[in-house]
Design a protein that fits this description.
Order of helices and strands: HEHEHEEHE
CATH class of the largest domain: Alpha Beta
Largest sheet: 5 strands, parallel
Oligomer: single chain
């Protein structure tokens, strides 16, 4: 009787271990690089609280020149590919990304994550920005 109980415990332990291993393998295999999404208000708060970040405008140079968030640098989404980006040398630095409406910033954020940038935060478009703009 005791021998049967020990066998059941061993089998149950083996099943649990196999399930956990499969789960961990599935998580690792299916996870693709990602970025965080926040609101423009949350981004404004981060800009006041953080000191070491890059504010990235991924609109065209013409859109950027017509008005952008103070301190932002412009790297158009269309120019972000698989090659290194000289303006963004630190892959662990906080990068706050925006565009006009939120579509290009999501695309650019995903591309940055796929290039191993680890702290990419997308906050939509300048259309939702209530702070100051500069030209």
């Amino acid at each position: 009787m005791k021998h049967q109980r020990n066998n059941k415990i061993r089998v149950a332990t083996a099943v649990v271990a196999a399930l956990m291993a499969a789960l961990l393998a599935a998580c690792g295999a299916s996870s693709k690089p990602s970025y965080r999404q926040i609101t423009a208000d949350e981004a404004a708060r981060m800009m006041q609280e953080e000191t070491d970040f890059v504010l990235l405008d991924v609109r065209t140079q013409e859109e950027y020149a017509s008005g952008h968030i103070p301190g932002a640098i412009c790297i158009p989404n269309e120019t972000i590919g698989s090659e290194e980006i000289p303006e963004l040398p630190d892959k662990d630095q906080l990068i706050l990304v925006y565009c006009r409406s939120g579509n290009r910033s999501k695309q650019a954020s995903q591309k940055l994550a796929e290039q191993d940038y680890t702290n990419v935060v997308e906050f939509g478009g300048i259309n939702g920005w209530t702070g100051n703009l500069e030209k």
